[in-house]
Amino acid sequence: MMATMSLSDVTAAASAFLFQEAKLLDDARIRDWHALYTDDCHYWVPIDETRPATECAAIINDNALALEERIYHLLETTFAAQTPKSRTLHFITNVFIDPASGDGATVVHSNQLIFELRTGDYRQVGLGELRPIPTSMTHELVRAGDSFKIRSKTIRIIDRDMPQSNLTFLL
Amino acid sequence: MTFVETHTGRNDLPTRDFSWMVDASAKRFRIHTQAYVGEDVYKAELERIFERTWTYVAHESEIPTPNEYVTSYIGDQPVIAVRDREGVVRVLINRCVHRGAALCREAKGKTRAFICPYHGWSYDTSGKLVGITDRNIAGGYDEDFDAPEGLYRVPKVDIYRGFIFANLDPDAGPLLDHLGRARDIIDLKLNMSPVGEIRLVSKPYSVRYKGNWKFQAENIVDQYHFLFVHSPFSKLQTKYGESTGDFGVHKAGKSHAERRNTRYHGDTYGCSQGHGLAFQPESDPENLKQGHFAEHFARLSEKYDEEMLCRIGGKCAAAIFPNLGMIHHQIRTWRPLGPDLTEVTVYPYELVGLDDELNAGMLRSQERFYGPSGYGMPDDVDIFSQNTEGLRGRAVEWLILERGIGSDVETENGDFRGLPASEACQRGLWRKWASAMKGIEQ
User: Fold this and answer.
1) How is residue B406 annotated by DSSP?
2) Interface pTM (ipTM) of the complex?
3) Beta carbons of A163 and B207 less than 8 Å apart
C-alpha cells in the first residue's frame, strides 16, 4: 500500500499519526497510547545514541515488557515523582520521511518540543515550573489496517548528556 | 610543590562556630534547620569541609593513558584530574595563573599541553608553565619577571584502588586514615570483579535537585526510607520480578514485613570520619549458587571463604564523607551548588573480567531504578525538594535523628555500629560535620 502512495501522502499520514500519538499523551490516555505500540516494540531515550546498550546506560531502554511495566508503574502505583502528576503539551514539527525507509517500515524523523508542568500547590519548591524539553525523534512505523503502529521510537533530548530533572512522565 | 606559592589565607571566612547545630547527647540527636538551609553555613562548609577533607575527584579508568584528563570539582573549585606525560596522576586547579581563565572546557580529553584560550600561555600535563606568548617583545615581560612555575597543584593527591582523591589542605593526614572502615565497602564492591577492578565505561546519569547536599549523603545509606519512598518499586518487583531487567539486585518481598526483613539485616556504621556504611551480607550462601551470578560466585569461591563470599555477594552501600557514594554497581558523587541546589552524578561501572552479559544486565538494572525516568531515584530527588519546602517552616527548629540511638555501640576506633533499621549512618555524618564546623572563635 505504501508503495502506491506519494511521498507527500506518506508524510501527511505519518504526521497525522504523530499528532494523534501526541494528543493521547497530552490527554493522559495512557492505555490508548500504549495500544499504538507493536508487541515487539523498542522505546529508547538514549544518553549517547552512538554507543551500544551493552556498554552505555540509557535514560529509557524499554522492550515491550519493560514498556508494559512502565505503564503499570504510571497507572497502578502512586509514587513521589508523579505526586502531583505532570501535565504536558507536545509540539511536533519537521516531520520527514527517511528516504531509506523500506517497504516493511516507514522511518519518520521529527522534532518535538515538550512543555511539562506539575501544578498541585504550585508555590512549593519543585512544583509549578513550566519546563521546555526539546527533542528530536525517530519513529519506525509499520502499517496496521489503515493506520500505523510504532515498532520503535527513539527520543533524543537535546541536553541528554547533561543533568536531567524528573522525567517520570511519558516523553 | 604546588607551583603557586603564595597563600595568604585571605579567602578564609570569619570562623563562626556552627557546631551547636548538632544537638547530641546519649539519647538525643537533633539537627538545626539552619544546618541545611543557611547560606553562611554553606560557605563555611566549602571551606571547612570540602577544602580540608579528602574528596573524590575521578576514577583512574577515566584517564588510563598519559595526557588523558577529566575535569572535576573540589567543592565549588574547578579542577583537572590528569595523568601527566610520566604517568603520574595530578589534580590541578582549572585556572590559568595569568588572568584566571579556565583552561579545559571539555569534560574529558587527551592533550600534550593545556593552552589558555585568553592569551596563549601553555602548560604541560604536569601543570608546568612551558610557554608565555610574546614574552620578550617590547611591552612584554622584563627579564626578571617573576613567572609562576605553573598551574596550582592540589597539594595532596592519593589513589585507593583506582579512586582518585585530592585534598586542598597541605597538612592533611593520609588518605587511608580518612577512609578508615569505608575501605571495606570499596573492597567488597571491587572484589566482585575476578581481578578486583572496575572500569567506568557508560556515560553517567546526572540530576540537579533543589535541596541541600546532605540530603543525598544521608539518603544513600538510609534503609528506613526504602520501605516507604520505594514501596511502588517493590510492587513492580512483585509483579514483574526480574523479567524486566533487574537481575535480582533490588529484592522485594510480598508484604511490608517481608520487605522489612530484607532491608533490615546486617550492620550499619557511623564512622568518625563522617562516613555512613551499610553492610547487608547474604544470609544464605545457597542463594549465591542460584541465579545469574551463580557461575561467577563459584569462581570467586576459589578465592574467598564462605563468610567473605556472602559479604561480597550481599549488598552494601556507603556515603563516604563528604562527596562519594557507593551503591549497586555505581560510583555516585554529589556536588553542592548552593545551600539549596545539588548536582548528583551516577557513574555505572563495569566489573573487569565479568561476562559482558552480566555487565550489560547491571546497566539495565540501573536504568530501571536510578535514571531520570527510573522507578527509584527520581522519587528520592522529589522528596529532597519536599524537604527544602518543609524546612521553610522555620518555626520548627530541629530535625530528629534519634532512631536506634540506644542500640549504637562505640567500637574501638571511634566508629559507632548501629542496627540496620537505625540512623547510625546519618549520625556519623553529623558528628564529623559538627567537629569540622566548630571553627575557631576569635
Assistant:
1) G
2) 0.95
3) yes
